[in-house]
Write a structure and sequence with these properties.
The chain is an all-beta fold. The protein contains one helix and 65 strands. Among the domains are: 31 residues, no CATH class; 178 residues, no CATH class.
């Protein structure tokens, strides 16, 4: 047993110009931290727990590292501790000795009891990713509470999947669980905390620090959040502080990298989660790069926030990189800088979902040297038959814009949807098809309704037709009851710009009852 008494002394230090140092200290300025006690593992395995019968009132007690190893080795002979309670009563240091994980990595061979962490720390975890589904728990289908795991996972292979410091795969309930450390693997379903969340709740969980790298489906909390056997994967009040990156995206629909979740499967949900960490995509990602979710399949994202730098190439968003089905994002905020080339935005990079009550405050930067388009404060591209309402942007939005798509304070390009009651107050800058609200309204069935622009809108083109507008840059849709309070900024030799519409193909039948106050 190793005991460490931590004494933190706060003192007042005064330095003279002659270089002498004097110290003044009083009892009130001394702070003594709580005693930290841990047990160091020597690689051995105990023959039993410290005590207990496995009930809630008398749980099995783990007081030594060797007893934690006993839990790992005794699962199959004890019915995987189904309906049993395990209580950790001291901090554990695994001393970087190779840890083979609790559970087999399958549902049948998973830990099925309740692990009571009692706010203890298991540190010094070292996992070699020589097979799929590896972590402190390889697989858990019971419950874990109030436990922090610290360590590293390395290795992997192109056919391997499911890596997380806390668990390779969780079929169970995790409450107030956290991790610190680095995950650096070749493989998919990679998380700073959990590789795969298979159909249960993760509440108040965090990836506190470190860098998580994988090939595909990489997230700070979990690489893949999925529905499993009719059970819905839910993440509630979770936070990421780590750096999340993908080594080399696979060019497939299921790729994605996110601050909270890499890929969200159908009928799952994420509520009140925050990303503080950087999310960096190191290659082309069909699936997308997002502050909360990289790639979203018909899942609801409610009241989430991103504060970190999000950087990728295609489909990059402060909340979601790419949404593929008619799901919902509501009440979410981006405050981080978002960087990419195509389909880049503060909330959803490329949207096939309903967007409501969302706010972007961060800078949106698209690389103007790479023909960047579909750039927006809220969404870069808004698909068909959707509704974007009550959203606002105050961030600086800048890209290029082209015949393919525009740059807008709210929407880069609107294909065939309703944009309603939205407000832009940020500067919007591009070259072609640039506007305060929608850069390119590219369908006659689209509608821009009761929106207000108060930000300036600027074309950096030196000559030619730019399609620059206060509400819509290039318009093929209906624009009704909109207000412009912003100023256009152009060079002398350009054409097609205006306070409501830059270039219009509809006329008075579709553009009416709008007001310009400049």
């Amino acid at each position: 047993m190793i005991r460490k008494n931590l004494l933190l002394i706060v003192s007042i230090v005064s330095l003279s110009f002659c270089g002498s140092v004097s110290f003044a200290m009083s009892k009130s300025q001394q702070i003594i931290a709580n005693e930290y006690v841990e047990d160091e593992w020597d690689g051995s395995t105990a023959s039993s727990f410290e005590s207990g019968s496995g009930t809630l009132d008398n749980p099995y007690i783990i007081a030594h590292a060797s007893q934690l190893s006993y839990l790992r080795t005794s699962l199959s002979s004890n019915s995987y501790y189904e309906n049993k309670y395990i209580s950790l009563t001291t901090n554990i240091n695994l001393k970087q000795i190779q840890w083979n994980g609790i559970g087999s990595g399958t549902l049948a061979g998973s830990f099925k009891g309740t692990f009571l962490g009692n706010n203890k720390i298991v540190r010094g975890l070292s996992v070699n990713a020589a097979a799929s589904y590896r972590g402190f728990f390889n697989s858990i289908s019971g419950e874990a509470r109030d436990l922090q795991v610290e360590g590293t996972i390395t290795g992997g292979g192109s056919s391997y999947k499911g890596y997380g410091l806390f668990a390779g795969v969780s079929y169970g309930i995790l409450n107030n669980c956290s991790s610190k450390g680095d995950v650096d693997v070749i493989g998919t379903y990679v998380g700073g905390l959990v590789g795969v969340n298979a159909g249960k709740d993760m509440t108040d969980c965090s990836y506190l620090s470190g860098t998580t790298k994988g090939t595909n489906m990489v997230g700070g909390i979990t690489g893949y959040n999925m529905q499993y056997s009719s059970k819905i994967g839910k993440l509630i009040n979770c936070k990421n502080y780590g750096t999340i990156t993908a080594k080399d995206y696979l060019a497939q629909n299921y790729s994605g990298i996110g601050g909270i979740v890499g890929v969200c499967g159908s009928n799952t949900s994420i509520t009140n989660c925050i990303n503080y960490g950087e999310v960096i995509g190191e290659g082309k990602a069909i699936g997308g790069t997002g502050g909360i979710v990289g790639n979203n399949f018909n899942s609801s994202i409610i009241e989430c926030e991103n504060q970190g730098l999000i950087q990728g190439k295609e489909y990059v968003g402060g909340i979601i990189g790419l949404s593929r089905n008619a799901s919902l994002v509501k009440g979410s905020i981006n405050k981080g800088k978002i960087v990419g080339s195509i389909s880049v935005a503060g909330i959803v990079g490329y949207s096939r979902m309903f967007i409501e009550d969302c706010d972007n405050q961060g800078e949106i930067e698209a690389d103007i040297s790479n023909n960047s388009y579909w750039i927006g404060g809220i969404t870069g591209m808004l698909g068909s038959n959707l509704h974007l309402k009550k959203c606002s942007n105050s961030g600086y939005v800048h890209g290029l814009g082209s015949l393919n798509g525009g740059v807008g304070g709210i929407v880069g390009s609107n294909y065939n949807s309703l944009v309603e009651d939205c407000n832009n107050s940020g500067l919007v800058q591009g070259m072609y098809r640039v506007a305060g609200i929608v850069g390119y309204a590219q369908s006659t069935n689209g509608i821009v309704y009761k929106c207000t622009n108060s930000g300036d809108f600027k074309s950096i083109a030196k000559y030619g037709t730019v399609s620059l507008g206060g509400i819509v840059g290039y318009n093929q849709a209906s624009i009704i009851y909109c207000i412009n309070n912003g100023h256009y900024i152009v060079n002398d030799n350009v054409e097609m710009y205006g306070y409501i519409v830059g270039y219009d193909t509809v006329g008075d039948s579709g553009v009416y009852n709008n007001i310009n106050n400049v």
